[in-house]
Amino acid sequence: MDYDFPKSKFYQAMMTGFFVGFFATIVCLIFNIIFRDSTGFPLSSYINVSTIIFLVNILFPILGIIYYGFLNSFKKADVSFILVFALLTIFLVWRSETVHRTEDVNINSEFKTLLSGVVLILGISATIFIPLLFRSKKFQETVL
User: Fold this and answer.
1) Residue 56 · residue 21 · CB < 8 Å
2) Burial class of residue 14 in the structure, from the number of CB atoms within 10 Å of its CB (0-12 exposed, 13-18 middle, 19+ buried)
3) Model-level pTM greater than 0.85?
4) What is the CA radius of gyration of the chain?
5) What's the rounded Cα separation, in Å, for the pair 15 and 18?
6) Neighbouring residues of 60: CB distance < 8 A, sequence distance ≥ 6
């Protein structure tokens, strides 16, 4: 029995965001583990396994919904989305360099690096992979 039914663009965009978020979560967790093992970074109250898992998996379906809004609002939605989120990623990486987490200069520098890395992973994932996978017929047929 074939239960395939037409899926709305809203559903496709939101689920594409969820799918990209799932993989962005895995990449962020791997980066977090490698970074902490290589530097011995001790602080984990802000960036830890729980915050990565929950925040990323809440954020990316919302980004999928925002992408849907771009699809309905702009003639060249993909270009607009990519441009806006690339600029937002650059802005957030720049702002993450101004964060002051602790008085220890070394630990503060390591926190900035960890935060910038997570922001870059999330930003690149959203900017590139949400529009790319949404437009992929193979992704639409096999995953969604």
Assistant:
1) yes
2) buried
3) yes
4) 17
5) 5
6) 17, 18, 20, 21, 22, 24, 125, 126, 130
Distances (CA, A) of 19 to 45, 46, 54, 118, 119: 27, 24, 14, 18, 18
The encoded tokens of residue 3 equal 């239960």
Is the CB of residue 134 less than 8 Å from the CB of residue 16? yes
Task: Please determine, for residue 2, whether its predicted confidence score (pLDDT) is greater than 80.
Answer: no
Per-residue model confidence as pLDDT tens digits over 80-108: 999 999 999 999 999 999 998 888 899 99
Which tokens belong to 13? 């965009």
C-alpha pair distances (Å), 1 with each of 4, 24, 144: 9, 34, 17
Quote the percentage of the chain above a pLDDT of 70: 97
Q: Residue 56 CA to chain centroid, in angstroms?
A: 6
Q: Distance between CA atoms of 42 and 68, rounded to whole angstroms?
A: 40
Count of beta carbons in the 10 Å neighbourhood of residue 7: 11
- Token pair recorded at residue 115: 């935060």
| CA atoms of 111 and 133, how far apart (whole Å) | 32
Contact predicate 58/13, CB 8 Å: no
